[in-house]
User: What shape does this take?
Amino acid sequence: MDRISILLEALPRKSTISVLYKGSAAVVVARDNKERLLFKVSTTVAVAMQLQAKWLVV
Assistant: This one.
């Protein structure tokens, strides 16, 4: 299982993700429907873009 699948499986369905890009790095922040922080991870732009695309499709 890749990192994207692991992150997507960990998120409740009613959560939201935000992606902050800076150069070749990105920070992904996930919050639940009550705006509580679920996780915050640093990753590459490529992984963050894949995660964002898959999450928006789900």
Summary: The chain has one domain: 3-57.
